[in-house]
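User: Last request for today: this protein with S-adenosylmethionine, please.
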Amino acid sequence: MWRATVLTLFPEMFPGPLGLSLAGEALGRGVWEIEAADIRRHGLGRHRAVDDTPAGGGAGMVMRADVVAACLDATVPAGDPRPRLYMSPRGAPLTQGRVRSLGHGAGVVVLCGRYEGVDERVVAARGFEEVSIGDYVLSGGELAALVLIDACVRLLPGVMGAAASGLEESFENGLLEYPHYTRPRQFEGRDIPAVLLSGDHGKIAAWRRAEALRLTRERRPDLVKDGPALV
Ligand code: SAM
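Assistant: Here's the final one, the structure of the complex with S-adenosylmethionine:
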């Protein structure tokens, strides 16, 4: 079973939204599992301190290496094959390709930072790979972890209703997805493109491919800079 272990100062944030909708139903059916380990339990002293001032001075606090390591070691056995990911704005940007490969594995171990982040030495010593969900700064890694886990879980067999809907989506074939329409036929003077009502599946597929290319060129030229992707 695909399993997510999250190391966090806010375990009550999990499963959070992942307990609802398709991911939540799959969680209930035992398709995947989530465990949130409370870093605070491994804090030091009477106040269970988890952070300290940055070496070299400066603003903010840094999560202690020894505390984070103690939480990981108590939660994840040494031979656990799952990748260890530290959610961090300095990390490699998360992509659909990476999500797909994580979804094919045994699961993930995710470390959520708070304050200024985590002492660099525990990231290196415990083999964490830094992963970013975008070029902006969140106040903590928990929302980033939820994003990453959601993206993986929806690709697990038995989570999405129609498996095919995953294959045509944005990024799956290197393009953004074509636009969707449904009833009513006319909305505030706007019609559904006639080709979609033609019943001609060849023409519909060609229109969708052309629209996907047009939208990708307009909005994300970086995705097609080496020519259109294969579909
Ligand atoms: N001082 C850090 C910096 O400038 O790179 C930012 C720390 S941020 C306030 C606290 C935590 O939020 C980070 O340790 C990380 O776990 C998480 N975080 C913030 N932005 C993120 C992003 N774009 N992707 C993934 N995690 C993020």
